[in-house]
């Protein structure tokens, strides 16, 4: 199977590709890429040579893997409910009016803040490019889509706060230089559900880039670029927040570009990682804290000075007596430049959740040099036009 990639690629176990089967049916064994029906979808600015959205069933990997969501940029609101994974039901402001951001000021008429605090559903688009310097967290209310396609908008100073909100989509924004105690690029807590963060570039915040805690669940983070940061993504607050056992997050086609740690760090919940590229971390790549369940499929882990990919962090839950770490199952991951999986074997690894028990399909490629190249191209803010609202 290694012949599908360059000779420097080292694979773990078996690589699954396009996954699609009813959740009610018995789970079939993993299928190797040569026999799988794999969905290849276009990446912005790539010449695919095939019709957008077309699937291939060839018994070999095509030369250019492609990321999902080909149809999401055809019309403005096609983005709604297009997410894969746990956040697949997020519709954002699908049923709301268009709100046009015409000012880069922190607050006032025509600003992003004015739109985000509105009670009614809104699909928020931008008529201006530039920096919005936030003096305080920008709190986002339910049923909002913040759609940065067609402009180059960067949030600085503080970040977005998704607090007790539902059905929010954040697409194609840049987050940089957030300052202050507990300041994250995107802070999701408490109790927020059905959230999708897509194609965002995040760097250089004083706390996290995306933090998901305190019973927030059913969230997808896709095609994002993370750079110049230490504690990148925390999921699950601390060992005292035992209600975080409900947390479910999917992270896919993201580029963790030299960030030090937490890609992510998880406590209590369930995280499905697939087709991400993580390189040159400073501490570890992925950490399983107390009762964490992590499924890592067909990701690329490229070591630098530090080599440990998977770290286990034993902790004591507030309602338990024993001190335990979580569990990680790795399938089809590639470990490059001396990256060491450091997986812990045992019965617990077999008890890690199965994604197909929660959603019946997702778009996944085998880990390969071509996939690595495409993730670097397609993760983060993209110079795509705003689609028509029709």
UniProtKB/TrEMBL annotation:
Domain of life: Eukaryota
Keywords: Calcium, Lyase, Metal-binding, Signal
Reaction it catalyzes: Eliminative cleavage of (1->4)-alpha-D-galacturonan to give oligosaccharides with 4-deoxy-alpha-D-galact-4-enuronosyl groups at their non-reducing ends
GO annotation terms (biological process): pectin catabolic process
Co-factor(s): Ca(2+)
Statement: the UniProt record of this protein carries the keyword Lyase: yes
Family note: Belongs to the polysaccharide lyase 1 family.
Protein name per its UniProtKB record: Pectate lyase
Taxonomic placement: Eukaryota, Viridiplantae, Streptophyta, Embryophyta, Tracheophyta
Gene for this chain: LOC123424575
